[in-house]
Amino acid sequence: MHTGQAEIQLVEGMLFQTFGQVPLALDVRLLPGGSINMAVRAGSSLGTFFIKWNDADRLDMFLTEAQGLEVLRQTGTFSIPEVLGQGTFSGKAYLVLEYIEPARHRPEYWPAFGEALAQLHQHTQASFGLSFDNYLGALPQRNALLNDGIEFFIENRLKPQAGLALYNNLISKVLYDRFEKLYQVLPDLLPPETPALLHGDLWSGNVIVDTAGRAALVDPAPYYGLREAEMAFTKLFGGFDGAFYQRYFEVLPVEPGFKERIPLYNLYPLLVHVNLFGKSYVSAVERVVNRF
After folding, report:
1. Which member of 55, 133, 188, 201 is catalytic?
2. Is this structure's pTM higher than 0.90?
3. Which of 18, 68, 74, 278 could form a disulfide with 220 if both were Cys (CB 3.0 to 4.6 A apart)?
4. Catalytic: 57?
């Protein structure tokens, strides 16, 4: 879908600010799927770029996304778009990235994707968390370093989201108190793990098949966390092809009972959806909490 003149002028200014040249033959097309930011494919004499923007007070969201992309790029495990520019222009915060041209799956795509994710998860550090905080969607994601992964999951993932939902009257005090009881038993329900580098928001909308047939990852919310949480997250909205999971678990097996633990890990993204999109997700949260 083509954009209006206002968007074209905005993109022109962002590209000029990034490259110091006026882009010629500008072709700007809106991209679908963004619920938080405006996103476009911008073809021009300077190249073809992916650009997204929001209000200027969201600049930190784009700065931390750029940092997160670089964290993933340094591992060499996936195709990751290069960050070309970020800043503010005409009252908007923006991020300019290399545009990854979508292509079709090849027969080996899914097992190669699973193996690459297993390789990413083998990148580790001494503590759970990250040297900077970032965002999941539009919500701040706290990455304060902790030595215990389950404590990290409770203190930096579940508690902030449950507290925000209670503050905004999206969940009841009864449900909030059930979370408090759940925290006490989670160490007995989840296996201990070594910190693993995670994409942090891994679902089909954040994966592109590039022209080389590889999985390219976008929109990360990375940190060193529990890798089972990432694998559970991939199943929240339908999951990937079976060959992806088969190859991943061949390379990095998990403890028995993972299938039963998936709902516990997915309490975090479900609470994020409650806080972003409202009470329609509360019943899914209640079903999980009431089981434990």
Report:
1. 201
2. yes
3. 68
4. no
